Amino acid sequence: MPTSEPLIRNISDTARWVAMYRARETERADPLFRDPFARRLAGTRGEEIAAVIQKRMKQSWPLVLRTYLFDSLIAEHLRQGGDMVLSLAAGLDARPYRMGLPQSLQWVEVDLPEILDYKESILAGEKPRCALRRVRLDLSNRDARRALFADLGRQAKTALIVTEGLLIYLTPEQVASLAEDLAEVPGFRRWIVDITSPGLRTMLTKQIGSLLAEANAPLQFSPEAGPEFFTPHGWRPTAVRSMLKWAGMKGRLNPFFRLLSLLPDPKGRQGRRPWGAVCLLEREDSRPR
Prior knowledge:
There is one protein chain. This protein is α/β, with parallel strands linked by helices. It has one domain: Rossmann fold. The chain has a 7-stranded mixed beta sheet with strand order 3-2-1-4-5-7-6. The chain contains 10 helices and 7 strands. 43% of the residues lie in helices and 16% in strands.
């Protein structure tokens, strides 16, 4: 890799890094999930990024547990009759190819052209297990995303929104705006998000913030209100799954973190304690305005 080029060039490169973690999990003897496409998608650059980040972040389980918990909540939604999954900032996610999905399911991926073009080139010979559509769109363009949401809302009755690894790069104002735009669509019924406490964001910034700053992708969103941040913006938390606790239940923690996982989850406002969770939100039929 040229020394004049940043390790992480842009936010799309973070998808290559995360794909490498999925590849390593897949290659374990006891994986929580299998993603046979992850290593190809990560590529050499993903492997190089992961090697550098591993020296700064010794624990790999948070990203693995995040993927596992998203998988679990997606599967639950489909068992309850969901007819669409809308994956925003889909990156190099290969769920339409690796999960057991009904053929009738509509899966819509939205991301920047560069990352979707790259993914299509890698997966050109593979067949998705459901009806897959890719939309090249900059989600910061509010008019364009609202038009897309309205169009998809006319096609779905029970859609699930997926934003894995996206919100932490947005400001609270941007997250609130996105939440309100999604809540405007009656067919968008559920939304899976991952959130961190201010304490965890501070810790991550110390570890890898300089690398992300070079890519103009600082870590920003860590609501003190926790999952309740979304309530005034049209979404009610119905399931909050602590990544630390689930990592403990799945036997992925060293003795120190296993002891920490036995502590009760923080209630109410979040503070300096490092904490992260995957949350299922449900759309409020009548939201405050």
